[in-house]
Design a protein that fits this description.
BirA Bifunctional Protein, domain 2; six-stranded antiparallel sheet; alpha+beta
Length: about 210
């Protein structure tokens, strides 16, 4: 399991690159100072930045495909419970018109999406990833508006929100503490490090995700 706070990022899905407006969408992301990347997990474009918290779990499984639904359910319930413990009316489910739509998204009171979830399964392992947009809802809405317009994808900007819009004073640090406490109730956690070989491989694979200007 890992938690981190990202730099301003516009994560495109693999299908986005086949749309006629993809180059214009990349330019729009850069205008808003969101670095475009290509991700393995997830569907359409999503935006997040330093006021967000990324939660991921990586598990080893000989055949991870049959448990995709179960992993989504466990992750979304963990995150929903975390936000509920903070005093938010958190609900699991897709909102009509939300960006990067998914049935395991988490919204506040059926109004605004604040958490997106994604999953990637390969032979022998699976990654479940979630982005909690804690703050900076306005810049996220602004960049997504221009990116989705360039891609020609319909959505409702009113559905893109941040946790602090519904819970004034919310911070990534507070959400991180609540999430760690909730996750510890499922089993003890211990700090870990990545071995040199793993980090070396990560650096080699990085270029597959970076999108450099033409």
């Amino acid at each position: 399991m890992r938690l981190y706070r990202p730099l301003p990022t516009l994560a495109f899905g693999r299908l986005d690159r086949f749309l006629a407006g993809y180059s214009a969408a990349l330019a729009a992301a850069r205008r808003h100072r969101f670095a475009p990347i290509m991700r393995l997990a997830g569907g359409r474009a999503a935006a997040y930045g330093p006021a967000a918290l990324v939660y991921e779990e990586i598990v080893t499984e000989a055949d991870p495909l049959p448990r995709i639904a179960r992993r989504f359910e466990r992750a979304s319930e963990l995150l929903r419970g975390t936000l509920a413990a903070l005093g938010v009316d958190a609900r699991v489910g897709e909102l009509p018109g939300e960006y990067c739509a998914g049935e395991h998204s988490i919204n506040v009171a059926g109004r605004t999406k604040v958490v997106g979830t994604a999953q990637r399964a390969i032979r022998g392992a699976a990654l479940t990833s979630a982005v909690i947009v804690v703050g900076d809802g306005a810049p996220v809405r602004a960049v997504l508006t221009d990116v989705y317009d360039a891609l020609g994808l319909a959505w409702d900007p009113a559905t893109a929100g941040a946790l602090e819009d519904e819970l004034p004073g919310a911070t990534p640090a507070a959400v991180e503490r609540a999430l760690l406490a909730a996750r510890e109730r499922r089993g003890a956690l211990a700090p870990g490090t990545l071995e040199a070989g793993t980090l070396r491989l990560a650096r080699e694979l990085l270029r597959e995700h970076l999108i450099t200007p033409a």
